[in-house]
Amino acid sequence: MLRKIASLGALLALATACGSGSGGGTAPAQTQGGFQPPKLEALKALGKGEGQVNLVAWAGYTEDGSNDPKVDWVHPFEQATGCKVNVKTAGTSDEMVNLMKTGEYDAVSASGDASLRLVASGTVAPINTALVPNYADVFPGLKNRPWNSVNGVAYGVPHGRGANLLMWRTDQVKPDPVSWGVVFDPASPYKGKVTAYDSPIYLADAAVYLMATKPELGIKNPYALDDKQFQAAVDLLKQQRKIIGEYWSDYTKEVQAFKSGDSVVGTTWQVIANLAQADKAPVKAELPREGATGWSDTWMVAANAAHPNCAYKWLDWIISPKVNAQVAEWFGEAPANAKACKETSDPNFCKTFHATDENYFSKVWYWTTPISKCLDGRTDVACKDYSEWTRAWTEIKG
User: Fold this and answer.
1) Cα dist. 170→179, 283, 313, 353 in Å?
2) How confident is the model over 2-13, as pLDDT tens digits?
3) Would you say 328 and 344 are in contact if contact means Cβ atoms under 8 Å apart?
4) Which of 123, 229, 317, 370 gives 225 a disulfide partner, CB atoms 3.0 to 4.6 angstroms apart?
């Protein structure tokens, strides 16, 4: 279940644009526009499986029973399709991009902070969604988004989604916080026990807060920051650095930190809150009033996949109702397939993870790779790309 998104490095110069977001501190309209990826064709017809498929995936997305005998959707896939699954587990988005560029893999479970780079470099091809029957049941709010499509052309199938929440120990943080301000207050009474996600993408969390608290900055999309907006986010995180106890990327370590009291407030995922509560830690997690960042992962197929038919069969399998429910429960995220909610072992699972609550997710800005052409549609200024986010993050942490 380990999930880490670390430094992404320099963004390809080929990536030039993608989309515009709406204002108001929420994220209902991250749409596409202006991006011109290499001209590649999607698979036209599904043929016989090639006997195997090579995948790059986040830990927890391709369980074969080795971690838990009861958690296995790989062997049933192999039996149903004749496609043997070979998996390379990646720990970061950078690693995923580099592995896919070797040409040795057929498909990848890319997060939004890597998918545009794969598209821009021609590493992945458009998807023929007609060859993925279960795509029809994917929540509309996850289709044709800037991290999984370009100019209306799908480049993958949505897998799952989640929000980056605010978590606190209810016995030490009072009253219950309703704003991200509690983790940015330089005079915080919780100094040394504040935690934050360890990744350059965390700059977007600061930008979401600034969108609501400093409207004069004019931030409309937390992944589209010009010089002034970017510097404001950097300054806020440098200020925050003074009260941070530790940055986290390993979810198990954050669970332990909140259990021990080494951390009492900071960013989290719903699965972390669930695990901490299961271990009797007095914690609560909520989406603050300013909204939040979040993730939506996408299965993408390599442009030169050696086993494209098996890759397509895998895409359809992983978002089929029963399997998508299994993955979502094991990993701890909202499933992508609307029918999966009837297949979860916990009848309240989809409610807990807000799977059908589009109003909830309208407040979530899904991770999207920042590029120099502003994602909010501005053409009179340049925005900071991810290489600059990475350099700034190194400076912030010191």
Assistant:
1) 15, 6, 46, 21
2) 333 322 222 322
3) yes
4) 229
